Amino acid sequence: MKKKNKPESEMMGYAYDPQLSEGSAKVPLFQTSTFVFKNAEEGKAHFHIAYGLREKAENESMSLAYSRINNPNLEIAEERLKLWDKSEGCALFQSGMAAITTTILELTKPNTLILHSSPLYGGTDHFIEEVLPKYNIKSMYFDSMKSLKSIIEKKNKEFPEIEVSLVYIESPANPTNSIVDIEKSKQLANHFSTKKDKVYVAIDNTFMGPVFSQPIDHGADVVLYSATKYIGGHSDLVAGAACGSNEVISRIKTLRVFMGNMASPFTSWLILRSLETLKLRMEKSAENASKIAEKLKSHKNVDKVHYLGLVSKDSPEYKIIQKQYSSPGGMISFDVKGGEKEAFKFLDNLNLVKLAVSLGGTESLACHPYSMTHADVNVDTKISMGMGESLVRLSIGIEDADDLIDDIICSLDTI
Ligand SMILES: Cc1ncc(COP(=O)(O)O)c(C=O)c1O
Description:
Layout: H1 7-10, H2 40-50, H3 72-85, E1 89-93, H4 96-107, E2 112-116, H5 122-131, E3 138-141, H6 148-158, E4 163-170, H7 182-192, E5 200-204, E6 222-226, E7 240-244, H8 246-259, H9 265-275, H10 278-297, E8 302-306, H11 316-324, E9 331-336, H12 340-348, E10 354-355, E11 365-367, H13 379-384, E12 391-395, H14 401-413
Parallel strand pairs: 2-3, 2-4, 4-5, 5-6, 10-11
Antiparallel strand pairs: 1-7, 6-7, 8-9, 9-12, 11-12
């Protein structure tokens, strides 16, 4: 039996035949909107599959037709991304929000309820709180650290008549690094599934995936990414991804055809470049972050550090972290002593670390979630989820750890 290589070994060549592209060692950029069919039958087969009029037969590969539907750069990047999550299917999008909203729209329907963890990325929160209610899709927050029984009771008490259509979670959550139990979320989805309607679990795995966490192993049905972050990794592209079974991804891809929000050939090509160094980059940023978190912990102007590597062994989260994650990752948030004034002072005095939103790039970034990425989130939700005005979020890059520590500590000293 042929030995299966690790994903990092496959990122340079998987799903690409150089002989189909003049021997080019690297995947060329297929900057074209349309493709020439061999014959009319091929054109017919393509559109019948793309529009969901029939399923693809076993071993049937879909021909290329039009870059809103498929393109070699898009497809090869999807094939490679799948390897990390060990998923059957993957769909790349033009942004993380496109991946999230298209998946939610496909898996939910009017007059139903979404059960979700909190906090969520500000854009996702806005979509669930402000956009979906227009289609009479309601939402209820649940805390996965509570018992399954108490979550079910809460739903039955607050929304007795409404059918659950989706369990949506984000773990570790942006920006607090709080953890959601994927297995319990799956049990919750199973409880509300019926013979006719399966309730899916979708998880935003942007902070840890795909290298340090494979949520499908714990029961997730769809794994979502802002590929703008670690997957893209150089802060030079905006993209998103959804990974899951063929069944669910082909549904999501069909909706993508009509939303027209696929990743472009150039974005997909950049992602192919980025995937080659994904593991190296994520490991280095996690190594740097562990050192920085240790220093922050003992600084006089820091109140609390929220970092997976510092979670106490006796907390309920610890076991879940051990189960779900193979590293504490590269994201740190911490509360400065004081409030917005002190947090801004810290941010304004950084030099090497740039003051910017986004995360997962080669360079370290710092931001103030309360007034920036999560400005739109309800104030009560922010406060109850530990996202106050003193919170600062750091995305640690791949610079020299000592240089980063000097910059961060010098800036903290100025408060
Ligand atoms: C956890 C998380 N999910 C989703 C998104 C949205 O991704 P994008 O900006 O690529 O649309 C972000 C963006 O910051 C994020 O941090």
